[in-house]
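Quick check before the chapter quiz. The format below is the same one you will see on the exam, so make sure you can read both the input and the output lines.
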Amino acid sequence: MGILSNHTDNNLLACLKQGDIAAFDELYYRYARKLMAFSLTFFADQQLAEEAVQEIFVRVWERRKKLDETKSFKSYLFQSVKFYMFNYIRDRKNDCSLDSLSDDFGMVSESLEDSLSYKELEGMMMEQIEKLPTVQKEVFKMNKFNGMTSEQIAHQMKLSKRTIEHHIYLASKSLKSNMLHNPTLGLVLMLNILY
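Here is the expected output.
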């Protein structure tokens, strides 16, 4: 634990805005491992996930003066991973071909981008999540959207870590199953939460 371990994120952000390297180090120490675990839900490649985390913290340092210490730094970091992933895919979409997709995945309409906006696709994804059983849905959202670990969720919900992990597994399995029946939705689920 660092010398600033008893400071809140908001206090550390205020110090960081002034160029305090110790505050940056403490924030990195608090969140790098959690962010890495979250990144691995998007990037199966360990090196790519590490690059995402490193790039995000480089940007935090570079943009430190613009950070809002009244807002959740944790949420900022986890949203940054999602944006990094979207940008990574966008920048490489010319390198992708249908030949590289598995046969299980099915065909995705070439006009997908033209026919549905991101918000509509996100809405479709959220509909599928909302259909999950109540506890699975709550646990899944806490894990994937809020970046909480199994331990944190177990503590908050007063359940065992193993039970929480089982709920996450069942929710992911159910959503992946929907991917096979709806290729368009499958693409959205894959890009947003499952990989």
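If your answer matched, good. DSSP finds ten helices and no strands in the chain.
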